[in-house]
Records
---
Amino acid sequence: MDMRTLPVAIHLGVAALVLGACNGGDEAAPSTTATPTDPAPATTTAPTTAATTTAPPTTAAPPTTAPAVSPTTAPPTAPTTPVAEPGTVVAENGFLTIQVAPGWTVDGFATDTGRTYEDVSGLVWEASFDSLIELVSLTRGGSDGDIAMGVFREGRTGLAPGVFDWDDAVAALVGVQPNVDLTVEWAGGRGEATRGRVGESYARHESVQIGDQLVSVLALSAEQPTEEIDDEVTAMIESIVVDPTALLPLAHALDTRVRIGEDTTGSTAFSVNVLVPPSWTMPPDTELLWTDPNPEGDAYIEYLTVLDPAPLDEVLSTELDEFGYDWLDVDPVITTIGSDDLDGAAEAIVAWEGSPGEAEAAIIVLSDEVAAIIVYIWTPGDPATLSAMIDSILVEESAWVTGG
């Protein structure tokens, strides 16, 4: 598939888990009064109004100062489910598998993979305990002293640096004072191993990168580990298997939003949210378009708005006739999204460029019978992301919710 012309009249150029920045602004005025800094989009369907992509309310960014780390305390991360017996542990729906040596206790492991999102684009990654998702936590007691071991991954994939910079940043966050650094390979990835200290404790910290996933191990002990214990840690690290495909395609994402306000609709607001990959950005000259910064990809999501719409299928039919058939490379496959999947807030219909699950482009129309929002999405070479983006659609406000 070659480059596609954007549905709007102007072809716009392609312009760690820390919540806190906000990208929104005041609601845009109708297109008759729009200012040059707040343009109204052009559509081929019905009279349109300008709407703004505003981020949902955010919370203040948590402090990133490292807490005191004891030999039996791993960095605070995601909740885990405690278990007691060693053996094979599978975490995050198969993302990580580890063989636990005899004599070790599994204190907890992550089960399901959650979806996390950030409200704006352009955020800079920095090492943070909130960005580290704990997969497995282990302890071993004995006459030679206690030792604690945790396996965790980076939650802000797509924004974090390469493995060596990430390893250094996380080690500094934890407070590792290195004595020896080595290059290592395990779990099908390559990275760095560090021996040193965290305060008065002995530390072993290793990180590898598998695809775009970053995984680390941290082992802390009050006493110098014996050769036997060190061999057990090595064996467990070497037993780790990582399957990046087990994670949700948008396990880490940005939340885009378009909102038609009450002043524009004359009755009630209508807002639609769609998650996008964390590397996507909003060009500076529009608030209705998000793009992949990779010039080879040209992927994007674009919102158009319609007031006083016709029935849902008629809105889609008109859009296809006037622009959509030319934009799609093949005749579309039409499916619907039930109101239950949108929290009962609206209904939606999808025109896929081919079979759902295999298509790389789609047009989605959502309506609450007061306003309609048309969404164009193109993810060349990545049908899984397209499907995930459509699955992520959420309607927060609509006439159906308020009864307007």
---
Amino acid sequence: MSLPPDTRAAVHAYFKSLGSTDAQAVDAETLHTGKFDWVGDVLILKETQKPVTDPSVREWFETKAPHLLPTAIVVDEADAAFTGKNLTARMAYTKAHGMDEADRVARLYGLHAVSDTRAGVRPAEMPGEKKPAKGDTNPWSDIPGVTTDPKTGKYLPAALNKQFGLARANVTAAASIAAAAGAKLGDIRPPGRSRRVA
């Protein structure tokens, strides 16, 4: 007679395969093992009756328990921190997201850790990449008619409002997003822009 499969270990392994941290995987196995069952040798989520290999299982946890999954990576922010040698941007990223998350993302960029002083290389596919919503742009970007006034070169009121909203929500993250466009908080125009007359 064979032993039944170890559900706790399988749940832990499943969350690790999604990119969850050790702490997240331990939380998942401790609190959510009862939500899983075996059909033969296939681990399924009881609620949906789908195997864990089905994308709907991850989607279910994204809705019900997103804290167990890796944080979505905002590419502009990560690129600003890890593709160059800007240690200030890396430290801002670390402050905004925590050391474990910063180290995880640094490794995606081919670095040993966030403290690695080399320039990283953006991976071809970013796991958990947060895609901007359609029409959503970095409010510090230089896009005439969208974020900037083509005549003056200054940020438009809509872009400024979005900048202020991001800064109110999280100053460090807003600084990183601005840095991704080469700008800084408080700029009235994108960098390198002077008054323009049409």
---
Amino acid sequence: MDTALSLAAQRTRLAQVLPAGMQCMALLGAATTLYGPSLIYLSEETGRTPASLGALFVFHWFGFFASTFAANRVARRFEMRRSVLIGVALLGAGVLGLIALPYPLNVASALLVGLGAGMLEVVLNRLIELLAGDEPAAALTKLHSTWGVGAVVIPLVVAGGVWLGWGWRVAGGVVLAGALLTAALAFRWPEFEVDHGADVQWSGFPWRSTALFVALFLIYVGLETAVGGWATTFFSKIGKGAILGAFATSFFFLTLSIARMTLAAATDRLGFARAVRTGTGLGALALMLTFFPSLALIGFGLAGIAFSIVFPTMLAWAARRHPGLRAQMASVSIAAAGLGGVVLP
């Protein structure tokens, strides 16, 4: 009876958290995807090449990486609800700087976006995994399913804003509105007091047993960042235009989001390792189509489907493979993800 009540309480708490968590992931997708479609226009404004403005991605993902050193400490002091609100505030401040400050301060503002996004990833992934019972991959896949919604909307808003003569910065305003909505939803949570574990002691951390997960997160997130972040520039450089490139970015994240919603229940049944192998293998095959300009758009869409289950499944796999290091593994996973986002772009 106690176990049944405990499971029922877990499901109730999960139901309380998921709506705000999914809105938060949509916000992260919107903020992260703002860079790629805007890059070509920011290049025209500043006279810098798109390649040199890749510093946007580096600042963002360095902030994402750095947040892992502070996330558990912040959560330990402020607990989960207030930690989420702090993360949203940091992200909103960074987006405001990106659209309002002059170069190069606007580029450096991406650091704050990354700090907020990394903190939100650590806190939300930990909380959902703890509340998910025996289906962590499914719950985390549902949580991350809306990441693609934000990533779909923002490239289209950038393209629409430019087409209407309003400029790309209108998309930043949409992201700020999403931040306010996310904060309003999270503010209504009850407070969650959870075991935050000890701070990560990098010198004594069991790297040998966690090295596989570090490598997986580093490579995968770098790959997803490269695909989603550079699609607009890719199509512009092959003469197809930035508008089609923005559409391709949206298409990639649209298929990723739909696939996460539809495939979530299958991840735990398929098994963590098999789901990761299948997703990355099929994604690599899909990206080979981008070597042929006439098939590139299809390749991006198929890659989104293939990659959809990889990241949330790896989060569940890492936590359940090292249950005594849950809090630490959340930090290490996001740190590796941030490093991948710095290195590959």
---
Amino acid sequence: MKNYEYHLVHIPRVLYTLRTIIILIVSIVIPITILMTFTYQVHSSFIIIFSLGIAFLLFKISSRYVRNHLYVIIKGDLLSIVETSTITQKKQERKLIGIT
């Protein structure tokens, strides 16, 4: 009997939502603190572009830390799923027997 192995990427909904909220908060707070520290006039277009740049960089940097790796192995009647978290490196293994 032939074995099938798959490697999948799973993004948990809770981590994705937390990541989005943190990125939004940071990209709003940093430009406001910059505005408060400078005494001279700063153009609003500069602040908007700066905050969008911060949000983009945080989104790209954090994208590889918010996913889990799933390894699915099918051997005959056995289905084995190994889930590895990229944040904690914790592995969870589930086996199902008798799938048809």
